[in-house]
């Protein structure tokens, strides 16, 4: 599409946007009586207006029913996680029994590594990104040490080529082949949090399987942002959080995917707790653990209901909008953002002011652009003090995520105006 850096043009795109009405179903934080330009849905998504209603329902059930709330027809707490099963499966392209919502992201990563990282003297290495999210690196390092191995030898961190910002797919595959029969696991983010790069999860999984390794993905920045087919791609396991694109609020509960072929294998080692028991037996308190043949068998504790109620409010919106429409709009928004950023540089007469780190490809695009900005910190502070919420990463990266669920084309036009002012005022 031919874009224009023009207010009426942006408003017209909003009028034509079939998802435009979703914006009014969110609380948008205010700056000087105006809605903020909120571009950090990749860090903490905004609150759906329905969330309070869903959470209050559970508070009322607790007030009115006490312990009987566990068995209230429909939304009883005993099976509350079931209410998130189908929507979670749709979100990541899974079979219903392959997903469960539980705990928090790093906790789940550890629980999954218990099952999928079982090193021996021959096969003990893990491939990850050099720019992995710190929590993921700590989890992998500590698991390696826990098994008595040395992270300096066992953790293979993939760096971008000299002078490049993102990993090349062929280099990931080459590393998998190079470590071959010493490789236990490939563990990457589905979408790198820093650069916004989307990985080809299917062929990375194929590559890992060819050398006899497992493939797992942290989908913190992919869930609710890009379309996935985890089951068909044969991914072994994945986990994600719900407070970024999924708008479930701070500390929101995490989601887990474990492939069908593994959930059927009840002999696969795992840490056990009573909530992972076959639900028929759960309240009969059997002496031994009887894992249910689904991802639910990785659950340990009874479910955090208030947290899950908040997630339900948001997942209902995802089901209503659908990932096809959301990703189509996300691509348009991000394309417009890219156009505006380039146009602002042109108007300021300097094409080297901002470099875009994110590889921009239609098939794979998430809705985040990572921008390396000259005078980055000053520009970021200017944006912040003018009601533009973006995300700062040392030393000079500003991440901007126009989220299709609630951001508008007008938001992006206004961003361009303030960005230009910022550049001119810090010169
Ligand atoms: C946000 C994020 C986390 C955060 O982990 P929590 O356990 O939810 O605090 C971990 N890994 C990645 C890749 C993230 O983007």
Topology:
Elements: H1 7-16, E1 30-31, E2 34-35, E3 37-38, H2 51-65, H3 85-92, E4 99-102, H4 105-116, E5 125-129, H5 134-146, H6 151-154, E6 155-158, H7 169-179, E7 183-189, H8 201-210, E8 214-218, E9 237-240, E10 254-258, H9 260-263, H10 279-282, H11 305-321, H12 323-347, E11 354-356, E12 369-373, H13 376-385, E13 388-389, E14 391-393, E15 397-400, H14 409-426
Parallel strand pairs: 3-13, 5-6, 5-7, 7-8, 8-9
Antiparallel strand pairs: 1-2, 4-10, 9-10, 11-12, 12-15, 14-15
The structure holds pyridoxal-5'-phosphate.
Residues 104-106, 133, 135-136, 189, 193, 218, 220-221, 241 line the site of pyridoxal-5'-phosphate (PLP).
Explained architecture:
The protein is of the alpha/beta class and 427 residues long. The protein folds into two domains: 7-35 and 323-425, Aspartate Aminotransferase, domain 1 (Alpha-Beta Complex); 53-320, 3-Layer(aba) Sandwich (Aspartate Aminotransferase, domain 2), CATH 3.40.640. 38% of the residues lie in helices and 13% in strands. The chain is built from 14 helices and 15 strands. The chain has helices at 7-16, 51-65, 85-92, 105-116, 134-146, 151-154, 169-179, 201-210, 260-263, 279-282, 305-321, 323-347, 376-385, 409-426, and strands at 30-31, 34-35, 37-38, 99-102, 125-129, 155-158, 183-189, 214-218, 237-240, 254-258, 354-356, 369-373, 388-389, 391-393, 397-400. The strands form four sheets. A seven-stranded mixed sheet has the order 4-10-9-8-7-5-6, sandwiched between helices. Strands 11-12-15-14 form a four-stranded antiparallel sheet. Helix 8 (201-210) links the parallel strand 7 (183-189) and strand 8. Helix 3 (85-92) packs across helix 11. The mean pLDDT is 95. Pyridoxal-5'-phosphate (PLP) binds at residues 104-106, 133, 135-136, 189, 193, 218, 220-221, 241. Residues 104-106, 133, 135-136, 189, 193, 218, 220-221, 241 line the site of pyridoxal-5'-phosphate (PLP).
């Amino acid at each position: 599409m031919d874009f224009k850096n023009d207010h009426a043009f942006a408003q017209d795109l909003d009028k034509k946007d079939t998802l435009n009405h979703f914006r009014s179903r969110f609380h948008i934080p205010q700056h000087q009586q105006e809605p903020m330009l909120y571009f950090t849905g990749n860090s903490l998504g905004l609150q759906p207006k329905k969330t309070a209603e869903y959470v209050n329902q559970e508070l009322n059930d607790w007030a009115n029913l006490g312990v009987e709330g566990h068995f209230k027809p429909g939304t009883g707490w005993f099976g509350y996680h079931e209410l998130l099963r189908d929507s979670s499966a749709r979100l990541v392209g899974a079979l219903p029994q392959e997903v469960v919502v539980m705990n928090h992201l790093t906790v789940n990563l550890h629980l999954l590594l218990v099952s999928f990282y079982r090193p021996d003297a021959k096969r003990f290495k893990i491939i990850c990104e050099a720019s992995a999210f710190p929590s993921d690196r700590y989890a992998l390092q500590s698991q390696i040490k826990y098994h008595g191995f040395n992270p300096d030898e066992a953790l293979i961190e993939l760096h971008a080529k000299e002078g490049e910002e993102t990993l090349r797919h062929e280099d990931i595959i080459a590393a998998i082949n190079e470590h071959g029969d010493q490789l236990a696991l490939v563990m990457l983010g589905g979408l790198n949090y820093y650069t916004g790069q989307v990985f080809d999860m299917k062929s990375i999984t194929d590559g890992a399987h060819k050398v006899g390794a497992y493939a797992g993905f942290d989908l913190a920045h992919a869930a609710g942002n890009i379309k996935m087919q985890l089951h068909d791609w044969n991914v072994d396991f994945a986990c994600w959080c719900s407070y970024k694109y999924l708008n479930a609020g701070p500390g929101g509960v995490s989601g887990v995917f474990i492939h069908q072929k593994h959930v059927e294998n009840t002999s696969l080692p795992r840490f056990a707790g009573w909530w992972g028991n076959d639900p028929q037996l759960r309240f009969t308190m059997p002496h031994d653990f009887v894992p249910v043949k689904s991802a639910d068998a990785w659950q340990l504790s009874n479910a955090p209901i208030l947290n899950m109620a908040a997630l339900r409010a948001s997942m209902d919106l995802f089901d209503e909008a659908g990932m096809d429409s959301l990703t189509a709009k996300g691509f348009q928004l991000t394309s417009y953002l890219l156009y505006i950023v380039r146009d602002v540089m042109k108007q300021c007469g300097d094409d080297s002011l901002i470099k875009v780190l994110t590889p921009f490809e239609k098939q794979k695009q998430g809705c985040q652009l990572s921008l390396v900005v000259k005078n980055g910190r000053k520009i970021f502070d200017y944006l912040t003090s003018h009601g533009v919420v973006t995300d700062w990463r040392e030393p000079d990266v500003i991440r901007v995520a126009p989220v299709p669920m609630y951001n508008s084309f007008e938001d992006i036009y206004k961003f361009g105006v303030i960005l230009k002012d910022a550049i001119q005022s810090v010169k």
